[in-house]
Design brief:
Length: 99
C-alpha cells in the first residue's frame, strides 16, 4: 500500500478523507464494521486453507490484500474518531474555563 497523504483516511490510487461533519461515534461504528469484515475474510481463508483444497495463489493474494485494506480503513476510521473526540473534549474544557 502507498503511504497515506497528510490527513487522508486512506490512500489507494487516490487519497480519501472523512467528511468533516461526520460524528465520531459513526466513525467508530464504521471502524467496527470494517474490522469485522476483515476478520470474516481472514477467518474464511483460515478455514479454507486448513482443508485439502487447491487454492489459486492470485485469488488468495487478492483476498489478503482486501482484508489488509479493510483493516487499514478500520484503523484510520478509529484514529479520526479519536482525534475528533479529543478535540471535542478540549473544546468542552475551554468552555468550562470561561467565566
Amino acid at each position: 500500500m502507498k503511504k497515506r497523504a497528510q490527513g487522508a483516511w486512506i490512500t489507494l490510487n487516490a487519497s480519501y478523507y472523512c467528511a468533516p461533519i461526520c460524528h465520531p461515534l459513526k466513525l467508530v461504528d464504521d471502524a467496527s464494521l470494517l474490522l469485522e469484515g476483515a476478520r470474516g475474510i481472514t477467518q474464511s481463508l483460515a478455514d479454507l486453507l486448513s482443508q485439502d483444497v487447491d487454492i489459486n495463489p492470485d485469488d488468495l493474494a487478492k483476498a489478503l490484500w482486501a482484508a489488509s485494506v479493510l483493516m487499514e480503513m478500520g484503523q484510520s476510521s478509529a484514529e479520526v474518531a479519536y482525534a475528533r473526540i479529543r478535540k471535542m473534549r478540549q473544546a468542552i474544557g475551554k468552555a468550562g474555563d470561561a467565566p
